[in-house]
Amino acid sequence: MKKIFAVLAVLGAFSGLAQAQEKIQVLSTQELVNVCKLPASPESRSFCIGYTTAAYDTYLTTRHPQRAKPYICVKQPAPSRDEVIGEFVKFGQSNQQVLDKPAAGVFLGFLAARFPCARK
Questions:
Q1: Using an 8 Å Cβ cutoff, are 115 and 72 in contact?
Q2: How far apart are CA 18 and CA 32, in angstroms?
Q3: Measuring CA to CA, which residue among 94, 110, 99, 113 is closest to residue 52?
Q4: For residues 33-37, average pLDDT
Q5: What is the pLDDT of residues 96-118, one digit of tens each?
Q6: pLDDT band at 14 (very low <50, low <70, confident <90, very high)
Q7: Is the previous residue joined to 70 through a cis bond, with omega within 30 degrees of 0?
Q8: Which of 39, 57, 86, 113 is deepest in the core (most CB within 10 A)?
Q9: Which residues contact 86 (CB under 8 A, 6 or more apart)?
């Protein structure tokens, strides 16, 4: 029984090492723009909405209000999701220099420019 645990531990170590050396692909802004362009298939639309919603929700849930001032402030009534995604697609198409950057960061930067917080 001890030999089994030892083998499993060694295999786990090799697996972790292989995973650490593996390059994790990140969605580029170009890929997100391509998926979000209209007309989109139901699958593309679902992916686009899911990805952009998750990026924004992650911003909302990970920003600690006492330690980090908000930088995205969506005023109500908010524009439709499709309107914002359409604006992001136009932004990506007209800012070629960001197309190779990770999509989540560029999307949050777009939201910060589109929905800036009031200066105090």
A1: yes
A2: 28
A3: 110
A4: 94
A5: 999 999 999 999 999 999 999 98
A6: very low
A7: no
A8: 86
A9: 38
Amino acid at 38: L
Dist CA 27 CA 36 (whole Å): 13
Domain boundaries in the chain? 29-114
Q: pLDDT per residue over 48-58, tens digit each?
A: 999 999 999 99
Residue labelled with tokens 């686009």: 48
| Assigned token pair, 23 | 């390059």
* DSSP notation for the chain: -HHHHHHHHHHHHHHHHHHHHSPPP--BHHHHHHHHSSS--HHHHHHHHHHHHHHHHHHHHH--TTTS-----PPSSPPPHHHHHHHHHHHHHH-GGGTTSBHHHHHHHHHHHHSPPPP-
